[in-house]
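Write out the bound-state structure for guanosine-5'-monophosphate.
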Amino acid sequence: MSECIFCKIIKGEIPSVKIYEDELVYAFLDISPINFGHTLVIPKEHHESASTIPEHIAGRMFRVGSRIGIALKRELDMDGYNLHLADGQAAGQVVMHAHLHVVPRGVEDGFHWNWRQLSYPEGRMAEIAEKVAGRLKLD
Ligand code: 5GP
Ligand code: ZN
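---
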């Protein structure tokens, strides 16, 4: 994907501050962080959607993301971290090269997810669980 900014970052055509790299993934500091240390973990292969990333690569993204989260906590003296992945514009994805956000968090960092809490009508939970479970095909 010649026009993709994250592919350009992987190729070194756009500068980035690297945190980690292996044969499958590249991790670098987000240019506009929620908190300092906010890192993006991306697959080296171009995938617009996280849902097309082969499992061994997606698994590596989450393993590396978790390890970076732990390192950020320890080295930046933070209290926790969020792993956040937006799949699709409806979910808030802006850059169309799938990426995992690793956001270091402090108890008093002043950032709050705008999380709403709906209530299920009678029977809807069971209906959803049956449909989704029926769709899953895991080894
Ligand atoms: P999204 O909103 O798609 O989940 O996240 C895209 C992220 O990429 C944003 O947090 C944004 O700050 C970051 N970003 C966009 N362009 C660049 C760039 O050129 N360099 C870096 N380091 N981060 C970028
Ligand atoms: Zn790309």
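---
The two ends are 32 Å apart (CA to CA).
The chain is about 30% helix and 20% strand.
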